[in-house]
Each structure stands twice: as structure tokens, then as C-alpha cells.
Amino acid sequence: MAQRSAVIGIGQTKYDAKRIDVSMPGLVREAAVRALEDADLSWRDIDAVVIGKAPDMFEGVMMPELFLADALGAAGKPMIRVHTAGSVGGSTGIVASSLVESGVFERVLCVGFEKQSESNAMWALTVSTPFSVAVVAGAGGYFAPLIRAYIRRSGAPEDTGIRVALKDRQNALKNPYAHVKIPGLTFDQVMNSPMLWDPVRYLETCPSSDGACAMIFASEAKAAKSPGKPAWVHATAMRSEPTMFAGRDQVNPLAARMNAKDLYSKARITNPRQEIDCAEIYVPFSWFEPMWLESMGFAEEGQGWKMTYEGATAIDGDLPVNMSGGVLSSNPIGASGLIRFAEAAMQVRGQAGEHQVDGVHKALGHAYGGGSQYFSTYIVADHKP
Amino acid sequence: MAPTEAEHEAPLTAVHHLEYAYRRSVGPVLGRFFAGLRERTICGIRTRAGRVLVPPAEYDPETGDATGDDFVSVGPGGTVTSWTWVSKPRPKQPLQHPFAYALVKLDGADTPLLHAVDALFESRMRTGMRVRPRWRSETRGEIGDIACFEPEA
Amino acid sequence: MELVKSITTPVVLDYDYVTGRAQSRFLRGIAEGRILGQRCIECKRVYVPSRGACPRCAVRTEEEVQVSDKGTVTTFCIVRVPSENLAFNPPYACAAVLLDGANIPFTHVLQECALEDVRMGMRVQAVWVAKEQLGPTMSSIRYFKPIAEPDAEYDTFKEHL
Amino acid sequence: MRDVAIVSFAQSAKARETRNEVEILMPVVQEAVKNSKLARQEIGFTCSGSSDYLQGQSFAFVGALDAVGAWPPIKESHVEMDGAWALYEAWIKIQTGDVDSALVYSFGKSSPGDLPEILALQLDPYTMTPLWPDAHSLAALQARAFLEATGKTERDLARVVARSLCSAVTNPHAVVSGAVEVEKLLAEPYVCSPLRAHDLPPITDGASAMVVVAGDLARKLCARPVWIRGFDHRIEPLGLGMRDLTRSASTEIAARNAGVHKGVLDFAELHAPYSHQELILRAALGLGDEIAINPSGGALASHPLMVAGLVRIGEAAMRIMAGRGDRAVAHATQGPCLQQNLVCVLEGE
Fold first, then answer.
1. pLDDT in tens, C86-127
2. Which of A67, A80, A245 sits opposite D71 (nearest CB)?
3. Could you tell me the CA-to-CA distances from B147 to A49, A99, B97, B138, C24 in Å, in that order?
4. Do D242 and B114 touch (CB under 8 A)?
5. B117 is a domain residue
6. pTM surpassing 0.90?
7. What does the alpha-carbon distance between residue D9 and residue D166 come to, in Å, rounded to a whole number?
8. Of the candidates D139, D138, D137, D132, which has an alpha carbon nearest to the alpha carbon of residue D117?
9. Ordered strands of the B42-46 beta sheet
10. CATH topology for A5-121+208-224?
11. Could you tell me which of A210, A242, A250 has the C-alpha nearest to residue D71?
């Protein structure tokens, strides 16, 4: 890279089912202003703005970044709108970091958002086209058969998903921004929650949230002037593959495995389980924790569920996963990936508050999207690469 | 009847209908603007730099700085700063007979507002003309409470 | 003055939807009660429905192949949550069906079967609308139903999960 | 900065396509890849631009992966923007050193819906979209403000149209072209005064693809690579009342940063969907009468939305590659009334 890139500012909104107290400009500004405050910067200090969000149909505005540009102080600046399906938050962070790494810009603000309450996510994702019959019920209906396939392949105990959900939902209680918080939740409550898309239960499913997340990436020179501790970007990676083709492995997609390999090679990581201190992984349905642990190389294929089962991914485990409560607890789709990146950086910067893990030097942020076909990941650390 | 070869090869087509009534929360600043419209008044907001924005925004579009709550009453009269004539209105547009879309700088505002002007004839339209709002009979707290503008007598 | 909290803004748009050429041929096959696929010239795999391209090889697919309306459930889920736009009322089984002769599963609804009896590997067949109601639309296949054949071995379909 | 060159470009444009997006895109991508002389798997990065609302379907861009050779999996990104910005992201990616080459593509069918009406969804959803101003009417507001502020006339607009359509005669991707007289154009009725039908962009369905390569590899692959010497883009507030519609402040900044006038220009490819916008852009870019504008015919002759900006850069590059110029400026725009503008300076080897 032409220059190093570091995270110097992070801001999140409170996530909720309906943020009816704010407009769309108000929502994105809530996150962006907090990121500026975190970095002790003003709008004028920002060189370029990157906006990420999922389908425009959620809000019913075509290319909404056009009307949001000036709300984010972008007048007279470069602005880019990223859309890579559910992985978009991660991709948005990667594009922002690359604008710095390229040597072209010194400080770049990126914002991921979704205001899903303006419409209905199930509607927007199930709009049927002529000549077809809508039988796949939203994202849950799409992913549930893949989860069943994973269970069959791995022989994982049926309560693995329940254990993930319980862990993430307990973590969410420690996160002031989290949307879904259920104090005193028990294993039995998760197990007895309604099946939505059998084998996926209600409490094993992500919510639909309103919210925004903002991050500021800066060059080494600017990071040195920043009041807070920077989180240095050690590597970023993106991989995509087509949705449907004959013989595609949708459970452990090659794109996911290649992405991990590329990421670790750039970050000079040979043993991810040992070298990475914690991870924020995109888990919209609980079973995706073991699935992505495998594709990310933390466990052998078919063995990921053991890490969950043994408590390795608990906040006090040897590889804490989704300390923030994860996508299961807050899911403004266009922001969800960027929240993973932000939370990973917060761990490295020691600013995660109640859900801070002790002694984090290196953390992973992960996002995926589409039909398990888009992957964006990054590694941040408390030291320069 | 069997389709002809040409019909057989032509791709199938159909109407794809997309419909949703979006429910938009508007925030405190536009919330005040729309509340004013419901009472047939128009407000702008003064930026720190002193410009009066109509419609009001939560931020100064030039800098991104927050605007605060310095609301300013503007209009109701205003001046057309540019216009175009719509001779064949589309069904969703504010008037169903020929009309003008115009930028109207309301008295006391520094930025013009986009709206429709019902002038009946294109020959009545000119830049610099004075217009005033025609209110909808039942206001609801939205931009359409101004049914359109019309030339001042 | 009481602030306005929200406004409703309807968006209603109509588009002329044009199917691709391959999809048109597929749908015209459906109107004749036939399920058509296309074989990739490079990897020789058969795509159902025809999609005009093999994404794996990034080449156009042209060779037309008729496949059976019988197949194997590779995986499935039971939809128990209602949603707008859905063509069926929950609960129902939504299955990936690998039709005999195809190399990629096809998603449809499974009926005439207790939900607890749905399983990976079960053999199923399409149930069509009455002949005079056949048309170039996926709704010409009402659903899939189980048939009296032994379940397929896991190894025969494990690559299609 | 790393030197990056355009080594191949391909496009498709028709007034109304009967093919779907994947079917339009596949041959275009294949042609660009073939002409780059790189194998598909050798290309380091892929980036595309498109908009869901042209199809009225969420994730419309996902299906395009079927057409572009995404197996084995590729390093890939997508912008919900004109393809020119996908090229910008690719150029940035090459600057980071992560990759040495990129495939950029964009696609869009404007014909399925009422495009000028659909574009009302790009506006402020609280105070503008509910009034459903179509894109043509908004451009006309700008046109009148521009004419009245500058003393230019409708005749000046007609001259832009006549020159564009005449240049388009030799462009196989033009959907409108021909020799037309200014007087005849001025005799046509207004669609939205002061604009007439020929002042508006024609509805066009299309796709385009380009391969860009860094440094010596570009020289190895291509007899005359076309170097990107300057590249910048800027945005303005969307609100028509919040900016000066009679000039393009964002183009002025981008032109300065891209170094448009660091050398002599032979021609310009400007993305001006409406005739008056060409005059605004010429002023913003400081282009004198000696510089040939839009030898391809420009956006008045062919305007596949989400594609047309990348096409300007591709047209300029192909012209330089063919030896019909050494240095050019290409421009892309999106958003109502030239809200966001991109400037790319190109030079032949």
C-alpha cells in the first residue's frame, strides 16, 4: 500500500426496530458526529465520504446518498456509494480504508446505514417478479435449508444454534447500542421460541433494525495527531462468487475460504485461532457462527460447532466472537457489516466498555452477503503492520 | 392456435408492479416545517452563517454543521427564480392540467423552494414573477399542504 | 405547535418486465408441461431452469435438455412465519429439489406430505395444474409431492447442498 | 502514484433491448477481456456500477455475476453509481498496490419503466419526491436559469444538438443521429420549456466494460495504452435551491484536481444528458472553442443510465488508442442537474 491506514474514530447510533425520532439525515449524522467527536475532528477535516447501504427499496429512495451527501458534510468532496448486498458494511469500510491506503486521501469518513422501518424488509426482499412464484420466505427462508445441510454434514448437536443465540443475546446486554436486549434469557426460552423457518427459531434470528455506524480512517501522519489510540489496518480482503451454479458449495463457499486465506496471508497470520484475540463475525442466524468459524479457518471443516459447544467463542473464551451481541442483536442491514468492523476496532482500541475483552491486540471484522456469496473482512491491531 | 415462429422466439413480457407506502419519520426540523404547513404557515431555518434555508434542514448544506433551532417565518409570498412548463402532466404530478414547476424564493428566504405554479397559460409565467401559496382545503402536515403556488393578483 | 412525526409517501411504479431469451424458452416449455434445462458446453452440467449462462464457466448455454419432473429433495426448511408476497400460507415445506437429469436444485413447495415426514433424500414429483390451465408461468407447477420410491442415498446428492 | 492505463473497452447500446441484463452484459465483458489480452483469472479486481431501481428489483446487480466470470471467486466490489465511479474504485484499488489490473463494467436498461418519473425517487424524499417532478422538468429549471444568467439562447442549445447528432452518425452505438438543421430543431415544440425533445437524453439500454492495467504490464499488453493522468470527482448538495445551477462548482474542483489544463487538450467527452449542460460543463472545465467536444455524439445520441459516464471515458480512450488524439478530458455525471461530477484526464503512450 502507498500508505498505512488506521481507524481513528468510531460512532454508532442506538439501534432499534423503529427510530421514529429521527429522519434519515438525522440517523446518519448521529453516527457520523459521534465518530468525529471520537476523533476530535470537524466536518472540514474530512477529505472524502463513503456511504454503504443495502437495497434502495428498503427506504424507497433511489441512490439516497445523493440527498444525504450534504448531511454528511460532503459538499465539494468526493463521495462514493457502495452496495455489495449484506456484506456492504464491510465493503464500505474496505473502500474507505483503500482511499487512504492509495495515498490519495488523508482522512476518510464512512457511514453504513439502514432505516428499515420506512418499509418492511420481508417485503423488500420478497418482491416477486412476473412468471415466478414466491416460495422463499425472505432471508430466513433462503438460509434455513443451508443450515439444515450444515447440520447434516457436520453432525453438530441440534442445540448448537441455541447456544450461539444465548451467548450473543447475553453479550448484547453489555452493549449500550444493541437493539434486542432480553435480560435473564435462558436456554429453554431460546429452545421454546417459535420455529420460523425450521430449523431456525425466532430467538436464533436477527431482528430488523434502524441504525447507522460511522468510522474514520486516517493516514499514519494523521493518526499520529489523533487523540485516541488508533486501530491499525493490517489487511483487508473481499471475494465474491455467483449465487447459483451447478455444484456450488453454499454451506462452506469457496469465496469464503479464499477470502480467509487472502486475509491471513496479507496480515501474516499463520494460526488464526492463536493469533487473533477476538472476532466480530456476521451471524444473522445463530448457526452461521460455526459455519463461518470453519470457513475462516478457526476450526477444521465440520468442527466449528465444537468451539461454540466448548465455550471458546464466549466473551471469556479463547476466541470471543460477537462480544457486541452481533447481528442477532442489532441488524440495520447496510450498517451490520460496518458495525462488525467498528466493534473489532473498538476492542483493539480498548473502548468497548462492558463488553471489552482484556488484552486484545488483534481483532477480526467479518461480513457476508447475498446467497452466502459476498465476503468482506479485515484485521485490525493495536500496533502498526 | 399454435404460436408463430416469431411469437415463439420473442421474449415473454409482463408488467412488474412495485408498490409500497413508505412511512417516513421526519425528525425535529422537518417536523416543525410540516407542522407549520398544517397551520398554513411556512418556516425556514437560519444557519450559523446567517442564510435562511427553505425547506429547513438539520444542517448547513455547505458545511455539514448543525443548524440548531433558529426557525424563521417566511413568505407566504415569493418570487419565481426559474420555471419550466409541463404541458402533459403525469398522473402523480400536483396538477392534472398544464402547469409550471418552479423554484420559488419565499420572502425572507435565501434559498428557493421547488413547487408547482398554477398559471393556466405558459405565457403568464416569467422569472421574477410574484406568487403565493394556494393551500389544500384539508392540510395534513406534508409538502402537499401547499397544493401549488399561483400568480399574485 | 405539535411537531409532525412522520409522513406517508407512496411509491407506485410499473415496469415492462422482459424475461431473458433462455427464461422465455423455459417458460414456454412449462406451458407445454415440460421442464427444460440447458447443458453447459464446457462443464456439461445441466441448468434448470434454463438461465442462458453457466456462471461457473462464464459462457452462454444453448443446448436444450428436457429433464424429468421427478427428483430428490436435497435440503429444505419448514416455513412457519407469514410474509407479504408469498404464494403459500405457512406452515409449508420449501424444498430444494434436484430433478433427475439436472445438476442444480430447484426450489419449490412440497405438499401432500406431513411436515414432520419431510426429509433430505426423499423422492418427489411435480404436480401440474390441469392441462387447459397450463401457461408460461411457474405457477403451472402447483407443488411437488412425495412418490413411492426409496429415498436417495446422501452421497448421490451431497454435492448439491 | 502508480501509472494506470485503459487497455480495452467494449459497449452495447440500443433504444430498447429484448435481452435481459445478463444476456446484454456477457458478450460485452467477454469482448473487453479478450481485447485486454489478459486471461479472466489474471485480472486482479472487478468493480461494477448499476442501480436496482432501473429494474425495480432488490440486488439487481447480484445476477450480473453470472455473466462476468466470477468463478473461481473474484475480488469484487459494486457501487450503486454510474460505472465511471466503479472505474474510480478500481483505480484506487490499483493505487493501494493490492492488484495490478481490474475489470470494470456497468449495465442498465432505461426502457422498462418511465425513467424520468423513476428519477424523482432520487430527490429529497420528504419535500421533493412527493411532488413527482420528472428529471426532464428539473433539467429545464436549470436550463432556464442558465440561459437567463448567461445570455445564451435556445439557438445555442440547438447548435449543441445539431453538432452532437452529426458526430453520432459514425458511432454504431448511437441510438439517435443524423444531419439536422438548427432552424428545424428550433421549430420543434417544447417538451418542458426551454427544452425540446432533442435537448433531452434518449432512452437507451446498454452495458459497457473496460480493463485497466498498471505500469509496464499495460505497455506489454497494448501497443498504445491510454494513461489515466488525472482523476477526481466531487459532489454538491442535492437541493436545487442550495447550489448555483448555472455553473458546476463540483466539476470546477474536480477539473483542478485532475489537472485538466496541465497540458494541451485535443478533445473532450462530456457526459451532458441535456444540451444546456454541455455549455455549463465547458465553462466549468475551461474548454475553449478550439477543443472538439463529444466526437462520439455524447449523451444526446446515446444514454444508457448508469453506463453513459463510463462510456465517455471509454470513447475517449478508444479514440486516443486509435491515434486520433493524444490528450483528452472525459467527464461523468449523476444526480439531478449535474449534482455529482467526475473528471478523468487521459493521455496516449
1. 788 899 999 999 999 999 999 999 999 999 999 999 999 999
2. A245
3. 37, 46, 13, 10, 46
4. no
5. yes
6. yes
7. 23
8. D132
9. B52-53, B42-46, B71-74
10. Peroxisomal Thiolase; Chain A, domain 1 (3.40.47)
11. A242
Number of residues in chain C: 161
Longest CA–CA separation in chain A, Å = 59
Q: What is the CATH number of the domain that holds D19?
A: 3.40.47.10
Per the structure, the complete domain to which residue C106 belongs is given by 21-160
- Max Cα separation, chain D? 58
Q: Which pLDDT does position A169 carry in this prediction?
A: 98
Q: Which residues of C touch B15 (CB under 8 A)?
A: 14-17
Q: pLDDT tens digit string along D251-265?
A: 999 999 999 999 999
Q: In this structure, what are the phi and psi dihedrals at residue A191, rounded to the nearest 5 degrees?
A: -60, -40
Helix (H) or strand (E) holding D218: helix D215-221
The CA distance from B36 to B53, in Å, is 15
Residue D4 sits at the vertex; the CA angle it makes with D2 and D8, to the nearest 5 degrees, is 165
- If you ran DSSP here, which 8-state letter would residue D107 be given? E
Measured distance CA(D22)–CA(C70) in Å, rounded: 29
Q: How does pLDDT run across D125-140, given as a tens digit for each residue?
A: 999 999 999 999 999 9
Task: With beta carbons under 8 A apart, name residues in chain C contacting D110.
Answer: none
Q: Which pLDDT value is given to residue B7? A: 47
In the prediction, which pLDDT does A327 show?
Answer: 98
Neighbours of D165 (CB within 10 A): 21
Residue D17 clears pLDDT 50, i.e. is over it? yes
**pLDDT confidence of residue B2:** 43
Contact A291, A252 (CB under 8 A): yes
The answer to whether position C25 is within a domain reads: yes
Confidence of residue C131 (pLDDT cuts 50, 70, 90): very high
Residues 6+ apart with CB under 8 A from D161: D180, D185, D198, D199, D275, D300
Beta-bridge mates of residue B99 = B86
Same domain, D91 and D182: no
Calculate ∠ Cα D223-D226-D232, nearest 5°.
Answer: 165
**Distance between alpha carbon B59 and the CA centroid of its chain, in Å?**
19
- Residue C116 forms part of a structural domain: yes
Confidence check: pLDDT of A211 > 80: yes
The total domain count for chain B is 1
Which H or E element spans position C14?
Answer: strand C6-18
Where would I find the beta strands (DSSP E) of A30-129?
48-52, 79-82, 107-115
Question: What is the domain count for chain D?
Answer: 2
Q: Flag if C76 and A245 touch (Cβ within 8 Å).
A: no
CA distance C160 to chain D (A): 17
Size of interface B-D (CB pairs under 8 A): 103
Scanning D50-202, the segments in alpha helix (DSSP H) are 52-55, 83-95, 115-118, 135-150, 154-167, 182-186
Same domain, D96 and D46: yes
Q: Which chains touch B (3 or more CB pairs under 8 A)?
A: A, C, D
H or E, element range at C27: helix C21-31
